[in-house]
Amino acid sequence: xxxxxxxxxxxxxxxxxxxxxxxxxxxxxxxxxxxxxxxxxxxxxxxxxxxxxxxxxxxxxxxxxxxxxxxxxxxxxxxxxxxxxxxxxxxxxxxxxxxxxxxxxxxxxxxxxxxxxxxxxxx
Length: 123
What we know:
Structural class: mainly beta
Oligomer: single chain
Low-confidence stretches: none
Helix content: under 10%
Radius of gyration: 13 Å
Strand content: over 45%
């Protein structure tokens, strides 16, 4: 069982930056691929990025490439999402998720989810 807690969301102007953190409980954090997803009102949950267990593979959705950076610190049981050059269309609730089975862009592949943190980007 893994519990995930996101933090770091907030209100920022377009062009600004935020750093999201996702702290995981348990001693097996390094066994999980970690992903970030987001969901805007009235829209489906969208894949943003994932990072594999040791950080050897990272994948981003095209819309955030060059602006967002995922990283993880297995010693601290934490995954991060650095978001730069934020745009109003990045406004959403951001979720971190953990998958022990595989690495995937499909949210159905992730067994554990955080409660989400709101990111609002004003124009």
